[in-house]
Amino acid sequence: MEIFIEILDGLILGDACLERRKKTHNARYHHECVHYTYMNYIKQVINQTDTFIVSDFYPKERPTLPNSTYTVCSYVHEILTEQEERWYTNRIKHIPEDIRLTPNVLKHWYIGDGWLSWNTSNKRYKEGWNPIHGICFATEGFSFEDTDILLDKMKALGFPCGRGKDNNMSLRGSLVKDFLSYIGTPTCDCYDYKWQIGDRGLYENLKNTCSCTRENQQPSL
Ligand SMILES: [Zn+2]
After folding, report:
1. CA distances (Å), 176 to each of 13, 112, 127, 131, 188, in order?
2. Does pLDDT of 61 surpass 70?
3. Cα of 216 to ligand 1 centre, how many Å?
4. What's the pTM value of the predicted model, to 2 decimals?
5. Which of 47, 71, 96, 193 counts the highest number of beta carbons within 10 A?
């Protein structure tokens, strides 16, 4: 199976979307991110399909955001239309019942819409001891029913998650190491920080200094 089709569910669980201007048109893939390296990886896996082909890869100024983003956009294709019909009802994303949470799908979901949370309320925090509290997934944009599908599938994998009042999902700290082993290493250096569960200082440093974001680029690049 082509990598792009394998990881597509994870990308759509995160920030990517499938766009379709009219019912009579086919859908295209659209994805924005501050990291050039990650977007370049996505561009390459799309171009490996030989059918979708990236039609645009461009920096896009987003004055309302602190960082400006890079955008990957594919040509329209009927395979993407099938996926659009599987994922969207009246242009609103819904979790497909048949979603498969493979390690690669979970990896790109975590990269796109997951984050580490740290136990800052622990009294030993001030002494420099920063235990990991867990992993959160931004599922607040989905309905409770949609999120139920993800909760059931995560439980079946041995990663039972809780659900907050905001409908975000969270995995407790004792399962984080197993979860990260299950999904494997990050796709590119940009997201190394999300794997730094033993060192809060390294996590913060890597998170804020990736040289491929426009904000962090040197003038000579
Ligand atoms: Zn980066």
Report:
1. 19, 17, 23, 11, 20
2. no
3. 9
4. 0.91
5. 193
